[in-house]
Amino acid sequence: MPTDFDTLTFLKRAIKFGASDIHLKVDEHPTIRKDGKIIKIDLPKITDADMDTICSTLVPKEIKTKANSVFDLDFAFEIKNLSRFRVNLSRQLGKTGVVIRAIPYEIKSPDELNLPEIVNSFTELNTGIVFVTGATGCGKTTTLASIIEHINQNYQKHIITIEDPIEFIFTGKKSIITQRQIEIDTPSTADGIKYALRQDPDVILIGEIRDRETMSNALKAAETGHLVFATLHTNDAIQTITRVINLYEPNDREFIRTQIAETLRGTIAQKLVLTKDGTRHPACEVLIATPTIKDFIIKDKLEEIYELVKKGSFDGMETMNMSLFNLLQAEIITEEEALNNSNNKIELQQMLKGIYHGTERYE
Q1: How far, in Å, are 2, 89, 121, 175, 270 from residue 115 at the CA level?
Q2: Which of 23, 20, 89 is nearest to 58 (CA)?
């Protein structure tokens, strides 16, 4: 059956328009996301024939058979000299749909991304693990790519990335970089980490940690003299530490708390907030694993860590509320946007009233 939908032309126009994501589903109009907002495009609804053409265009030939037999599949696609894309193929009510994330060729520096200055200090580490966390679409991958590229440009290291799929493409500069894609270059993330330890790495980037085996291998890598960066889907530092511990059985958690305390170097919890001029800006909670914080992890006093982060500005730490408050003070975002993105709205409201700012004070 003939189809009028031109996949490549649509993707090129979407990138030119500034779209971060493209949604294509059968019986629905093509849709994009720009600056966090969903926009339906005034084009005919996607037909079954359109979707066959879309999949034929996007799915790499080496996984076309698999694409016909699974319900969900992630892979990468590229339009040369324009952009790379991360593609998720899924089923909805028996129909196929794809969600496409644009991955630009350019890798921006932490400063260009408006990340906190303390983020650069993580690139100077030689061992340990750093978690970059947040919801889907919050910029975790972009932040990690920025950190890796900073190391690449400034240090003589061997960097191994283990991703599903590979998103940003790195070109070795002072460092050499090995990028491995799950199910193409290595069977699984856990296996990728295990065998990476035999490939003379200095830095290991793990696209996402989803299970206990992967976490155990990541912690072992950090424990044995490597610098590990990884992502988790958590909202703040305490959730991150709790998620790691809860991957394990109760009888193992005392040991894991000690292992985390020994290997953790910091966490970055990130959100993208809408600015007054309609663009998006990162708001970041940053934890630095100080000796006191390590002690609290071992003693299972996780809730007390938040108070340390609030009072740890001298270490470069800040809570999400502190980050939002600073963006509001700088007139980058509105009060409504700050409150909408706060994990603790009551505390932020108190800060806005002058009751709390970094350490307690009353006006």
Answers
A1: 48, 32, 12, 23, 9
A2: 89
To the nearest 10 degrees (0 to 180), the angle between helices 7-17 and 48-58 is 80
By the 8 A CB rule, do 133 and 232 touch? yes
Q: Which amino acid is at 317?
A: M
* Cis preceding-peptide flag for 110 (omega within 30 of 0): no
pTM score: 0.88
The rounded mean pLDDT for the chain is 92
Residue 360 banded pLDDT, cuts 50, 70, 90: very low
Cα 83 from Cα 101, distance rounded (Å)? 10
d(CA 211, CA 200): 25
**Residue 297, pLDDT above cutoff 70:** yes
Burial environment of residue 255 by CB neighbours within 10 A (0 to 12, 13 to 18, 19 or more):
exposed
**What pLDDT was estimated at residue 168?**
94
Which of 164, 184, 14 has the alpha carbon at shortest distance from 83? 14
Helix (H, G, I), strand (E, B) or coil at 354: coil
- Phi, psi torsion values for 7, nearest 5 degrees: -60, -50
* Rg of the chain, C-alpha, whole Å: 22
Per-residue pLDDT averaged across 52-60, rounded?
Answer: 93
Q: Count of residues for the chain?
A: 363
Whole-number Å distance between alpha carbons of 176 and 163: 17
Q: What is the mean pLDDT of residues 178-185?
A: 92
| Residues 309-350 pLDDT 10s | 988 777 889 999 999 999 999 999 999 999 999 999 999 999
**The two three-digit tokens of residue 110, written as one number:** 């932490």
The number of angstroms, rounded, from the C-alpha of 358 to the middle of its chain's C-alpha atoms is 27
Per-residue DSSP letter, 45 = P
Q: Does residue 362 surpass a pLDDT of 50?
A: no
Q: In the chain, where does DSSP find H-type helix? A: 7-17, 48-58, 64-67, 119-122, 140-154, 189-196, 212-223, 237-246, 253-263, 291-298, 303-310, 320-329, 335-340, 345-352
Quote the pLDDT of residue 69: 80
